[in-house]
Amino acid sequence: QVQPEESGGGLVQAGGSLRLSCAGSGYIFRTNAVAWYRQAPGKQREWVAGISSGGITTYADSVKGRFIISRDNAKTTVYLQMNSLKPEDTANYSCKPAQLSWGQGTQVTVSS
C-alpha cells in the first residue's frame, strides 16, 4: 500500500477558500476511514476532520461550519473543502487513512 498524496494547498487571503485532495489507492484506502490533520509551526499536530468508509463525517470545533470533508464514489480520493479561511488555519495539512501511513502534506497559508 503506497502512502496517500495530498494536493491543493497554497496562499489565500482571509475569507477565501481552498480544496485539498488526498489521493489514495487500494482496498484498504477505499474501505477505511480517512482523517485530515494539520500542524502549524511550533504547535502540535491537531485533528481537523474525519470521514468513515460509509461517509459519516466529524469535525473539530475550530473548523465546524467552515470545512467540509467528502470522498468520491470510487473512494480513491478524500477532499477537504475549506471556506471562510482564517490566518489561524495556516498549517501543513496531512491526510491519514486508517491502517496506512501518513502523506507528505500540503501547505496552506492564509494571509490577513
Which oligomeric state applies?
single chain
Figure out the total of helices.
Answer: 1
Radius of gyration over C-alpha positions, nearest whole angstrom: 13 Å
Summarize the helix and strand pattern as letters. EEEHEEEEEEE
Structural category: mainly beta
Low-confidence stretches: none
Enumerate the strands of the largest sheet in spatial order, edge to edge or round the barrel: 2-10-9-4-5-6
Taking the alpha carbons of the first and last residues, their distance comes to 40 Å
Largest sheet: 6 strands, mixed
Helix percentage range: under 10%
Identify the notable features of this structure and list them briefly:
mainly beta, 112 residues, 4-stranded antiparallel sheet, 6-stranded mixed sheet, 1 helix
Describe this structure in words.
This protein is mainly β. 5% of the residues lie in helices and 46% in strands. The protein has one helix and ten strands. The strands form two sheets. The chain has a six-stranded mixed β-sheet with strand order 2-10-9-4-5-6, with no helix packed on it. Strand 5 (46-51) and strand 6 (57-59) form a beta hairpin. The longest helix is centred in the first third of the chain and has 6 residues, at 26-31.
